[in-house]
Structures are given as structure tokens and as C-alpha cells.
Amino acid sequence: MRPTAELHCHIEGAAPPALVRKLGERHGISLDGLFTPEGGYAWHDFTSFLAAYDRAASVFRTPQDYADLAHTHFATSAREGMIYGEIFISPDHAANAGLSYASYVEGLAAGIERAREETEVEGRMIVVGVRHLGEEAVERAARIMVEEPHPLVTGFGLAGDERQGRAADFARAFTLAGEAGYGLTAHAGEFGGPENVADVLDHLAVSRIGHGVRAIEDPALVARLADEQVVLEICPGSNIALGVCSDLASHPIGLLRRAGVAVTLNSDDPPFFDTTLAREHEEMARTQGWDDSALEALTRTALRAAFCDEETRGRLLARLDGQDVANPPLRLTP
Ligand code: ADE
Ligand code: ZN
């Protein structure tokens, strides 16, 4: 089994449809139209995907619901090889379901801890602000994270519809999080063009970009990404499902890697896109012809870019191969 590490997975987007259905029944929430006849999630474009995501999230009402979700995600992924995983968590989704930030994080942490005891998988959480809810909501998410710290919450990010707002609108939230020592990442270059990627790099002091694949449209930006060793959290299966890219064989991850960009492989919202982290690796071998050492390099880059403490990083890298391989520096949060 191949050891893997993941930096980009939205916890509500990792909810298996069967669990969502069960909790919907338990809490008396109507989920009409949420599922396809085959039992997957029903959506047809980015906007309807975000709406389906919000509905699936709405059934998680108690800390125990979130503990079960995190445990399922981490334990299942670990059985398929994952040794480290970060999840995006959203205080706005918790609040919509009537949960306080503290209960949300405590529930998720209990699930992560239980999975770690069973499988040795390490997990961390990255609080995200939802871009289309506006700059005040994003700043509130950063503030509550800083005011109510938890040892497993180690990063701050920006998700949601990147076609809305400018990166600079969110600078206050990112400054707050960055000054408090959190790792920083933001979705860009998925539904927005390369200018969104540059905008985020210029204004939000991130070390990583969620997706970033549309950087491929601007060769100067690709050179900048390689030069500054910005880490891209690439999610090929998601890109195909959402129509950002046409097929895996021509997915820009190959060109970006050859241009010297630091790339990682991620599942984003696995059951929505009929994928898993292990499957993403298998598909890169099949469609891009990557061998074991190329796939291992993705995991090594993910561990080097992970928002975890140095002791944990060292232990995970040692677990990967026990070798002392040169690790040139990645972009430091400026
Ligand atoms: N939230 C969940 N999945 C997302 C994606 N692929 N892009 C932006 N926001 C998201
Ligand atoms: Zn995402």
C-alpha cells in the first residue's frame, strides 16, 4: 500500500451519502433532490455543487455527528494508505447547523483522535472562510479561530466561490491568522483565472494555493510559482468533475510539475467527485504515466508543506522512507 498525505479536503465535502441520509432521518431534515438514483450527490455545475454541499453539511447537528464524520474520513483514508491529512473546516457551516465553534472543533478533534489511536494517522484542521459570504464573515472565521485556539487547528484558508470579491478584501483576516502563527492557504485559479492566483500571492501571504491549475494559462506566473516554490494543492478528479479541465491525461499537473512547480495531490470533496486520495494516485499513474518515485515525491512535498509542528513532520517524513533526502526550501509565508 502506498503511503499518502493530503492537504486539501473539505470535511463536509467528505461526508458519505449514506451517513448524510442517516443523519437527515435522525434529525428530521428533508433531503429531497440531494441524491441521484444511484445514491451519489446530485449537482450539475459549480453553483449547484456548492448548494448540494451546504445541504449535506446541514445534517451535522451535534459534536458527535462531526466526530463520526471525522472518524469515518480519517480511518477510511488511513486504511487506504494516508498517514497525514488536513481537513478544511468551516465555522459558518457549523453555525448554520446551530453548533458553536468550540463544539464543532471538539467533535471533529474527537473523531481525529479516535482514528489516530486505531490507525496512527495524523490529522490537522484548517479553518476556512467562505469567500462568497463576504469579507466580514471571513474575518469572523479568522477571529474565532485565533480567540479559541485548539492544538489540532493549525491553518487558515479561503474557500467558496472565487469569482466573488478580490483577494485584498480578505487581507485583514489573513493578517490576523498569519500574525497568530497559522499556516495560510487560499483557493484560487480553479474557477478564476491566473490573475486570481497572482492576486492571492500578492495580498494574502499564503505558502500554498488551493487548486491553482489555471496558472497554466500564464507562463510568467508558472515561472513565479516555481521560483517562489509555492505549493499547489491540486485536485485533478475535482477539476474533471466540475469541468475545470477536460481529462486527466491532459490535466495541467503534468506541465506544472515539469516546470518545477511544487505540486501535491488531493481529493477536495471525495464522494461528490467519485474519488478518494488513493484513487487520485492510481489515476496519475494510469493517465500521466507517473512511477512510484514520482508519486512518492507528491507525498513528500505534502509533508514538507503541511501545517504541522516540526517534530510531527520529521516523524512523518521518516515514516515515508527513513531516508535523509535533501529537501530544498518551499515558499515561506512572507
Ligand atoms: N468548497 C468545497 N469544495 C470547493 C471547491 N472545489 N472550490 C471552492 N470551494 C469549495
Ligand atoms: Zn477545495
Classified in CATH, the superfamily is Metal-dependent hydrolases
- Largest beta-sheet characterization: 8 strands, parallel
Instruction: Tell the overall outline.
Output: globular
What sequence of helices (H) and strands (E) makes up the elements?
A: EHHHEHHEHEHEHEHEHHEHHH
Estimated structural class: alpha/beta
With strands numbered from the N-terminus, the spatial order across the biggest sheet is: 1-2-3-4-5-6-7-8
Spans of at least 5 consecutive residues with low confidence: none
Q: What are the main properties of this structure?
A:
single chain, binds zinc ion, 334 residues, TIM Barrel, globular, alpha/beta, binds adenine, 8-stranded parallel beta sheet
Task: Give a quick precis of the structure.
The chain is α/β, with parallel strands linked by helices and 334 residues long.
Please write out the topology.
Blueprint: E1 4-6, H1 17-27, H2 46-57, H3 63-79, E2 82-89, H4 91-96, H5 101-119, E3 122-130, H6 135-147, E4 153-159, H7 171-179, E5 183-188, H8 194-203, E6 208-211, H9 219-228, E7 231-234, H10 236-241, H11 253-258, E8 262-265, H12 277-288, H13 292-305, H14 310-321
Parallel strand pairs: 1-2, 2-3, 3-4, 4-5, 5-6, 6-7, 7-8
Helix pairs in contact: 3-5, 6-7, 13-14
Bound molecules: adenine (ADE) and zinc ion (ZN).
Residues 8, 10, 159, 187, 210, 268 line the site of zinc ion (ZN).
Structure in words:
It is globular and about 50 Å long. The chain has one domain (4-315): Metal-dependent hydrolases (TIM Barrel). The protein has 334 residues and is an alpha/beta fold. The protein has 14 helices and 8 strands. The model has no long low-confidence stretch (mean pLDDT 96). The protein has an 8-stranded parallel beta sheet, sandwiched between helices. Residues 10, 13, 53, 159-160, 187, 190, 238, 268-269 line the site of adenine.
